[in-house]
Inverse folding.
């Protein structure tokens, strides 16, 4: 009797994560790859760039693509650019995770469903299931959303509590094509340290200023130097008005100092060495409405 079994072929592919703002897409990706490469905050619409998170296990490599929240509330050049990025990300993925929040389905979620391509498997991920007080309500909710599109699978999870994430990974794996790994086994992102530095500062800004800061504020790393283990990071925070500049700086510079200290600590952890960080605030009026301006800041 032949008892040898052929090991399963290696699988590798791209996974796009979509959903309306604030459903937990960044949190989910960070938990799936087990590292913090995508920024998260309570304020909706914090993720602007496509971020790739990579996870390699024995028999597969998962390449996650985080998309900016599909914007429907405002219509300016920035949002048009964001929505174009979402569509491009979707059509180049092998699997799509469509994330909703347990118990909540609205017009903004439906608008994302309307963007989903029909020829790529889409997994319905019901996140924040830890919040459902009565777990019995999850099933009817899942059935109701599942009826709106032909999903390849439905998985309730809690990104925050890591509930059901292995089950989700198994579902995803089924849809990845067979093929060799694209990245090295220890890579977690293809983003440069410079890019990650800007994302970290942006996260601290949104965390500390919350709703006071408009989502059009941005962070630009103007200089990034490496000298042995030391990184020197020179960073500008761009706001639209003088009043916002004062808000970011805070009383006697206290806010900016807090942003700076927290950012430096996070960078040191991520880069594994000391970081010298300088941050200043600039007023750049109207940049979110100007497409040429967007290109200059790398939002294409
Ligand atoms: N209770 C609970 N909260 C969660 C869970 N996942 C995410 N959150 C919270 O939901 C909020 C939004 O999470 P993000 O990961 O920033 O959401 P996002 O979908 O990436 O948001 P955008 O960048 O605006 O598109 C944060 O306060 C998270 O802590 C979860 O499983 N349970």
């Amino acid at each position: 009797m032949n008892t040898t079994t052929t090991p399963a072929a290696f699988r590798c592919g791209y996974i796009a994560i979509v959903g309306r703002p604030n459903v937990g897409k960044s949190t989910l990706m960070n938990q799936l790859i087990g590292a913090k490469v995508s920024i998260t905050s309570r304020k909706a619409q914090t993720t602007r760039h496509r971020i790739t998170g990579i996870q390699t296990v024995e028999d597969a490599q998962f390449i996650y693509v985080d998309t900016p929240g599909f914007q429907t509330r405002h219509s300016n050049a920035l949002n048009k650019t964001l929505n174009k990025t979402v569509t491009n990300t979707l059509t180049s993925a092998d699997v799509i995770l469509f994330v909703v929040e347990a118990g909540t389905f609205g017009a903004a979620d439906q608008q994302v469903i309307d963007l989903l391509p029909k020829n790529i498997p889409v997994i319905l991920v019901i996140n924040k299931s830890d919040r459902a007080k009565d777990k019995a309500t999850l099933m009817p909710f899942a059935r109701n959303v599942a009826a709106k599109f032909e999903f390849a699978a439905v998985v309730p999870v809690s990104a925050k509590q890591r509930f059901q994430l292995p089950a989700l990974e198994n579902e995803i794996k089924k849809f990845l094509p067979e093929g060799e790994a694209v990245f090295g086994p220890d890579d977690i992102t293809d983003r440069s340290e410079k890019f990650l530095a800007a994302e970290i500062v942006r996260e601290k800004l949104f965390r500390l200023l919350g709703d006071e800061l408009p989502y059009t504020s941005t962070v630009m790393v103007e200089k990034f130097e490496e000298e042995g283990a030391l990184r020197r990071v020179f960073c500008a925070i761009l706001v639209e008005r003088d009043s916002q500049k004062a808000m970011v700086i805070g009383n006697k510079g206290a806010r900016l100092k807090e942003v700076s200290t927290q950012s430096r600590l996070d960078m040191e952890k991520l880069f594994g060495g000391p970081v010298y960080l300088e941050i200043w605030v600039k007023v750049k009026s109207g940049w979110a409405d100007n497409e040429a301006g967007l290109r200059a800041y790398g939002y294409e």
Observations:
- The pocket of guanosine-5'-triphosphate is lined by residues 19, 21-27, 40-42, 44-47, 69, 127-128, 130-131, 158-160 (CB under 6 Å).
- The two ends are 59 Å apart (CA to CA).
